[in-house]
Design brief:
The complex is a heterodimer of chains A (120) and B (113).
Chain A lengths: L3 E4 L2 E4 L5 E7 L6 E7 L5 E8 L5 E2 L8 E7 L2 E6 L8 E8 L12 E2 L3 E5 L1
Parallel strand pairs in A: 2-11
Antiparallel strand pairs in A: 1-3, 3-8, 4-5, 4-9, 5-6, 7-8, 9-10, 9-11
Chain B lengths: L3 E3 L4 E4 L4 E7 L6 E7 L6 E7 L2 E5 L2 E6 L4 E6 L8 E8 L9 E2 L3 E6 L1
Parallel strand pairs in B: 2-11
Antiparallel strand pairs in B: 1-3, 3-8, 4-5, 4-9, 6-7, 7-8, 9-10, 9-11
The chains are: A mainly beta (120), B mainly beta (113).
Chain lengths: 120, 113
């Protein structure tokens, strides 16, 4: 089955530094990757959609300059949290899709294991 | 009102019981319905995927979709402690803009030995 690898699984950084999180599709080409943020005991909040070779589409309220997304290849997308602050501490999860599920037009996502960011 | 409503729980059941989960939604354009399971501090994993109305069974899991009522369900038979997790419903419309899924808030399930 499809596998998405996310790294690092946990990162602790000082306030003001930047942190990069990688999301890789291991056995399929991901035309689209999604980045989510999840607070404790809450559901997934979509931050942005990234398509290979083009700029990411950010959801309303998500700062583009704070959360830089790059999708340079069909198997890799990165999220960089720039000048991180304690309020950026969260669980960040990526997901990927190769497109259609059985030609039905559905968008079945495969998720990474998530990255827990703690900003001191 | 959220597009997808899901009771947050927690839903506590004894081992061996049937777990019944559901979501309601308001967007009649939704055609694709999924259930994901998420263990604590892990990414969600796909459990079931159904298209339009009807039932689908996979082992101990049964997914039901009633589009006329805008209501979907997931049943887990013979529940095990390892089924303790948060269950998220998700859905999308055909050729949804950006291929986005809309998630429910998740229901936390506890299966007690």
């Amino acid at each position: 089955g499809a596998v998405v690898s996310q790294h690092p699984s946990r990162v602790i950084c000082k306030s003001g530094t930047s942190v990069k999180i990688e999301c890789r599709s291991l056995d399929f080409q991901a035309t689209t990757m999604f980045w989510y943020r999840q607070f404790p005991k809450q559901s997934l909040m979509l931050m942005a959609t990234s398509n290979e070779g083009s700029k990411a589409t950010y959801e309303q309220g998500v700062e583009k300059d704070k959360f830089l997304i790059n999708h340079a290849s069909l198997t890799l997308s990165t999220l960089t949290v720039t000048s991180a602050h304690p309020e950026d501490s969260s669980f960040y999860i990526c997901s990927a899709t190769s497109g259609l599920a059985g030609g039905s037009g559905a968008n079945v996502l495969t998720f990474g294991a998530g990255s827990r960011l703690t900003v001191l | 009102q959220k597009e997808v409503e899901q009771d947050p729980g927690p839903l506590s059941v004894p081992e061996g019981a049937i777990v019944s989960l559901n979501c309601t939604y308001s967007n009649s354009a939704f055609q694709y319905f999924m259930w994901y399971r998420q263990y604590s501090r892990k990414g969600p994993e796909l459990l079931m995927y159904t298209y339009s109305s009807g039932n689908k069974e996979d082992g101990r899991f049964t997914a039901q979709v009633d589009k006329s009522s805008k209501y979907i369900s997931l049943f887990i038979r013979d529940s095990q402690p390892s089924d303790s997790a948060t269950y998220l419903c998700a859905m999308s419309a055909p050729r949804a803009a950006g291929n986005k899924l809309t998630f429910g808030g998740g229901t936390r399930v506890l299966v007690k030995p």
